[in-house]
Design the sequence.
């Protein structure tokens, strides 16, 4: 599965989590930690509100 051009493994490596963690997030089995959310924001510009489905 590709996520914005990155594989799960590439995304996991980029933000410092295990590949299975990405899968658990995608399937709703786990939620990202604060640190993971901040890594996504800092490296990819993904706003935290977007991750939680909050629209302003």
Sequence:
């Amino acid at each position: 599965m590709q996520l914005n051009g990155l594989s799960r493994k590439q995304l996991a490596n980029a933000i410092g989590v295990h590949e299975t963690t990405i899968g658990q997030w995608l399937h709703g089995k786990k939620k990202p930690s604060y640190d993971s959310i901040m890594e996504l924001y800092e490296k990819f510009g993904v706003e935290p509100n977007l991750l939680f489905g909050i629209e302003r």
About this structure: The first helix runs from residue 8 to 15.
